[in-house]
Specification:
103 residues; alpha+beta; Ubiquitin-like (UB roll); 4-stranded mixed beta sheet; two-stranded antiparallel sheet; 6 strands
Amino acid sequence: MTHPIEARPLEVRSDSPWSSSKRVYPSGKETNPMRCPACGAADLIHTTHDIPTDYRGVSAIISAVTCEFCPACGEAILDREQGDRYGRMVGQFRHQVDDQHPL
């Protein structure tokens, strides 16, 4: 059974500096995309994904997680803000599962 975890959606703008093959930082500096550190097979893509998680046989989707995503292997690399948010959401999900299915 999948339990959706509601999260406030993040705004994705079409004028994002991540929408091209080069990243443009606020300083105006451009850099090429980073290769996936997990598989090395593809460049990472800055995007927003729903990330599945499982705990004690129960599945959930953590929605709208902005990350650097590898289209080859599925690796998702989160910045600190998104990592903290993802961790909180997974913690909430685990508490829900523990409350509904005590050992």
